[in-house]
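Hello forum,

I keep getting stuck at the same step: I have a sequence, I want structure tokens, and every attempt I make locally crashes halfway through. Rather than fight my setup again tonight, could one of you with a working pipeline run this one for me? It's a single chain of 306 residues.
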Amino acid sequence: MIPANSRRLAGVIPAVCTPMRDDGRIDHHLLERQADYLVTAGVDGLFVCGGTGEGAYLTTDEKRSVFVTVAQVAAGRVALCLAAIKSNTPAAIREIESLASLEPDFIVSTTPFYHGADQSVIMSHFREVARAAPAPVIVYNIPSATHNPIRIETLRELMSLDNIAGLKDSSGDFCQFSRLLFACDRDGFACIQGEDYLCGPTLLCGGDGMVTGLGNARIEPYVQMFSAYKAADYQRVKWCQSRINNLYRIVSGAGYGNGNAAIKAVTELSGRGSRWMRQAALTLPDEKISQIVKVMAEYDATAGED
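Reply #2:
Ran it on my machine without issues. Output:
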């Protein structure tokens, strides 16, 4: 379980984009602008080098430099979650140990991937990661990327481990997520939603918060939604979720595998990011970005209704 003296894992935690130059290098100036936008808007934490941050494509040294930049902007105002996305347990532990001096508030780890891993392997992985991590661990369930889902029985067992802060669930399986959410023995274990369509439902069911990649585009409805939740204004929560669903059109209209690229394109259009992906061929062409311009114009035209 999470140590009592650690920051609370809750609220709005955007998964920060990692801006790239056209030559593949990280653009730290734009990273500063994006991180400042998010922190100034009132988020509760930042999720660094996760899926939206293209963490699986970054070297350990690049992750270190990204985290340092984000931490300088955050200046202690929000919780910082640092993802160590590696395909196997020894590599994840080596990276976690290499980044320990950065003193993140939370360490994030996915299941092993590339080869299949049954639930006993997944449980062993998180036991070892939790023992090695210098900060409480966020269990990241994203089977669309790892192809190794974490089952409800394993998640319930993970609740009892020392140094486990909670779950970020990006499976989209709300049946399993809600079963965990309503588990009577989850004291000290945060249930965080990672699917943007399910952020509002998670809060309405008493969840702890959300990690959002889409929020890089417009974080305001997420911050407003969590504030409404804390104020028990549940109609407002539903309204904010409808705004997020509308914003999601930039992802759903971009085509298979282009979600992150669409989000990065919006940050470029907003002057605080770059369209370029680390895997350069994934960068959206002008015709796709023209479609996103139209979606965002329609979205921003109704911003005054928020």
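The beta strands are 11-14, 45-48, 79-83, 106-110, 137-141, 164-169, 190-193, 209-212. If your local run keeps crashing, start a new thread with the error log.
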